[in-house]
Amino acid sequence: MSLKSSPQRYGRMPVVIHWLSALAVVIMLATGLTMDSLGDADPGGILVVHVLVGATLALLTILRIVWWLAIDRQPEAPAGLSPVQVWSARIVHLGLYLTLVVTIASGIATVALTGAAPAIFGGGQLPDFEAVPPFFAHATVSRVLLILAVGHIAAALWHQFIRRDRLLARMS
Length: 172
Fold this sequence. Notes:
The protein has helices spanning 12-38, 45-71, 83-114, 117-122, 133-163. The chain is mainly α and 172 residues long. It has one domain (12-171): Fumarate Reductase Cytochrome B subunit (Up-down Bundle).
């Protein structure tokens, strides 16, 4: 498999970026929802993991965008998809990109505006993240990301197990 994509399937680089990003998104959503359920309790190491994986996801997202804009082209839409399915897939993918960028940017802005970095990495009293506007965007858009990710996974599983069109083979 080549680093770059062919008209029928994704290359090695986009596949690696995709699956690493997917893993990072799962960790981010799990740690974020866990911290949300803790209320006012100290999140401890969960916040450190959340921030470090978020930074990794930011780098992967930048790499992915640069890869698609400057280096590679995405494969063509698979044969047999209706125009509505092709359009829906493009909208969901664009939504995933946008929610990732907004979630990452609002997370960075929340940490920056609260001055939380020393407390996150060095211990100490955490600031009130809810006191800054980017936190609301971070919390809200991350839930939209969750909905889009579940839809994306459901569509992939539908293709794999209902349609049996081996669409997942393009990303493996």
